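Hi everyone,

Forwarding the result from last night's run.
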Amino acid sequence: MANTQVRIAFMAVLGFGHSSGWLRGLLSFARTRPNWRIRHETNTADGIRAVCGWGVDGIIAHLYDLEMARAICGMGKPVVNISSAISDFPVPRVSMDNVAIGEQAGRHLLERGFKHFAYIGYSNRHFTTERYTGYARAIQAAGYTVHRYDSDSSRVIQGETNVADNADIERWLRGLHKPLGLMACNDVLGHDMLRLIENIGLHVPDQIAVIGVDNDDLACNFAHPPLSSVRVPWDLIGYEAAVLLDRILSGRRLAEKEKAIRLPPQGVMTRQSTDVLAVPDADVSTAVRFIREHFSENISVDDVLEVVPISRRSLEQKFRAVLNCTPLQEIHRMRMDRAKDLLTHTGLTVFAVAKQCGFSSLEHFSRMFKASEGVSPARYRLRARLPQ
């Protein structure tokens, strides 16, 4: 198909942050295929009729509903699925690693010192169970338990955000120990939880800290307070889906590992809804706040001890008891998190990233980064960022 026009249908509902990301990624790959002609249609009966009439060659689709998925695949054209809403549907898929997303959210709340945890998701979406699995794994590994609630209202794909069981959720939240770390399976439900928590007179983040998933900038910043969220690589999902469809159209036989590609999350965007340290120990709280404010200044544990006037041994014992790490490990963790964020989302040189994260030299940064992540900073950037 190198010299003939290739008609590609992108089937999804636009207007959400994730759908815009998918499309950006698809268009980025399409720049390398001048013979591709891309057409958007909704993943609905009307969209299916339009695609059938167009004479499409391949389809990238958000298959969130089983009946709709069967109808799209029934057209007899190659399909790459970019949704994880339904499980075990027999077409190649590129999606996010939902278990890793849950683990990321769990670690984020654990790092803030919470000891009581909850999760709210949808009862009929496969991705919500996967995210819960990762979340519970991280929480249980730290010795705690997770309380789970499944909402029957899962119509957010169509833009309906009504939570029909508010009264039950209210009773559930009131009955849980505080302070509480709460993961919502996505930003839409996280936004709803913030409104509900405010309506019942509880405070965010002091009594309940809330984290969502998707990092939809408008949804998160429109929330009150602004919602922390796990970043999902939507652009990269769209790009890799296009790569996979191109391989199928070229007649290449896919290896098993290519039939279900899962991309990891890109960290957490911390906003006010989790900007709290839920620990009763005043020394640990003071030390962590100092580290958060100064980790980019090449500080050491000795600098921390200037603001927490106890012995180094005592501070380390308190950190291990409360946060399961040492003060030095907490400094390194914050620096690594910041470095990964800058490498993924900015064009700063590796040297500039090292300086902004408080490392004394590029060599020290590179050595610490590889020890932490298993790859060099440059390799991490290449792996995490969308090809241009």
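The chain has a mean pLDDT of 90.

Cheers,
N.
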